[in-house]
Amino acid sequence: MVRSLPAFQSFPALFRVLMAVFIAAFIAGCGSMPAQIDETAGWSAGKLYGEAKDAQADGNWDKAAKMLEKLEARFPYGRYAQQAQLEMGFVYWKNNEPGSALAACDRFIKLHPSHPAVDYAYYLKGLVNFNEDLGLTAYVSTQDPTERDPKAAREAFDAFKELVTRFPNSKYTPDAKLRMNYLINAMASLEVHVARYYVKRGAYIAAANRAQFAILTYPQAPAIEEAMFIMVTAYDKMGMNDLRDDADRVMKKNFPTSRFYKDGLTRKTAWWHLW
Q1: Nearest-CA neighbor of 190 among 160, 162, 150, 234?
Q2: In whole angstroms, what is the distance from residue 20 CA to residue 17 CA?
Q3: Total-model pTM
Q4: C-beta of residue 164 within 8 angstroms of C-beta of residue 180
Q5: C-alpha angle 54/60/62, rounded to 5°?
Q6: Fewer Cβ within 10 Å of end Cβ, the chain: N or C?
């Protein structure tokens, strides 16, 4: 009788030997690989900061962020540290990292509440939130802003308000005021848009309440004209004639030639478009 071939019997042992040789060679190869060298090792704080500024000038925001991070980590108490912390917010923002930018602003404000440039930190915090949710790109997009969380708009307003209140003479205050006015009307328009939606759905109590909230919260916003008309419409639909007449009297006193008396709540373009 012919027995099994010895070569097949010895295969497991041969396999183990080959694997051992392979592993030994792999380990030896790894050991011979050159270690990754940090070219910034030994750089001074001034050198790191200079490289960060050069990267910013070139629009290389990722490199700028890394240089500033190394600077703060290696020289946390040096004279460049505070400047690095302040600039990190802007660099993160330009590098499309709004979360990190806001965290950097908050950290700087917390660590250096009396710093001469803390007004800039508040302004930058407002800018990041402003552009994140209610900037020009948001308005010209095809997305209805009511589908986005208005939290960023409120936080932008709060940051600008803090700047305007605490630093009325700051060079950033005039622009902050303009953006606050923009945000007020944007948030009022959002409330009015929701109230109009309730009217279309026949939820007249909710529509009247939402319109009234917009009027009381943002009394100077241009969107209040439509909010008043929504209240008139909602009360009329519910048969609340006294409330309707009161609202209509206020409406005619403040907006005697309002287009809403002629056109109603019909709109030809989306409410969030500027043109």
Answers
A1: 150
A2: 5
A3: 0.73
A4: yes
A5: 115
A6: N
